[in-house]
Amino acid sequence: MKPLIWFSELLSQHGIALTDEQHRQFDTYHRLLADWNERMNLTGITEREAVYEKHFYDSVSLSFFVDLKEVERMADIGSGAGFPSIPLKICFPQLEVLIVDSLNKRIQFLTHLASELRLSKVECVHGRAEDIARMAEHRDAYDLVTARAVAKLNVLGEFCLPFVKKGGLFAAMKGSDPQEEIREAAASLRELRGELVQVHAMKLPHEQSDRHIVLVRKTDATPKKYPRKAGLPIKQPLV
């Protein structure tokens, strides 16, 4: 079965009906990803069906557990080649998306990608999450903040929660069972005004590899001392 067919059918089971234009956007996304990947390291996965399953479907799966129709502003921290934010933006065009990445070459790719896909309301920012989160326009400002396979949860919390507005959600997209990470991060999440809501588990449709989504609710504004200086969250995770 061609990737677009099974992809569309699986998404339709979750109430996502792709238009011809959205099909074209995903197809163009794969083509540009494979092309740019020959010149810079964006992903180790470029084969079409694998990209649709391990990148596109995996990214959109967040919407199976969070109602993206109710989200206005979303931030994607350490987005890499645009996952999960760009596939989600394609499926939910109303989203206003901030993408933060520390490598300028990736930001150049994402800026070009957003232009080629004709995506509006996508801001691609080159910088460290710790620095961007201290800017007034981004601090405590987003309904949903995501990170996919970036770092352990006790580090991710300090990267992501400062972007989340009070009452908003931080969604950490993980592979294997994150229970140990959750235990390690319990104190740091409380310190950053985060409260664990739920952990969702699923499997990719063909490969059947495990995926988990950790949802954390922001209970209050970020304490002024966070995030700490760039580099510190990784070197000295909160405990």
> In terms of per-residue confidence, which ranges show pLDDT below 50 for 5 or more consecutive residues?
none
- The number of helical runs is 9
Structural class: alpha/beta
Task: State the end-to-end distance.
Answer: 48 Å
Count of strand segments: 7
Tell me the major beta sheet. Answer: 7 strands, mixed
The radius of gyration is 17 Å
Determine the fraction of residues in helical runs and give it as a percent range: 25-40%
**Morphology call:** globular
Strand order of the largest sheet: 3-2-1-4-5-7-6
Beta-strand percentage? 15-25%
Query: Mean pLDDT score, rounded?
Result: 95
Taken in chain order, the helices and strands follow as HHHEHEHEHEHEHEEH
What's a quick, concise take on this entry?
The protein is α/β, with parallel strands linked by helices and 239 residues long. The protein is 38% helix and 22% strand.
3D structure, described in words:
By secondary structure, the protein is of the alpha/beta class. About 40% of the residues lie in helices and about 20% in strands. It is built from nine helices and seven strands, in the order αααβαβαβαβαβαββα. The chain has helices at about 5-10, 20-35, 50-60, 85-90, 105-115, 130, 155-160, 180-190, 230-235; strands at about 75, 95-100, 120-125, 140-150, 165-175, 195-205, 210-220. The protein has a seven-stranded mixed sheet with strand order 3-2-1-4-5-7-6, with helices on both faces. Strand 1 (about 75), helix 4 and strand 2 form a beta-alpha-beta unit. The mean pLDDT is about 95.
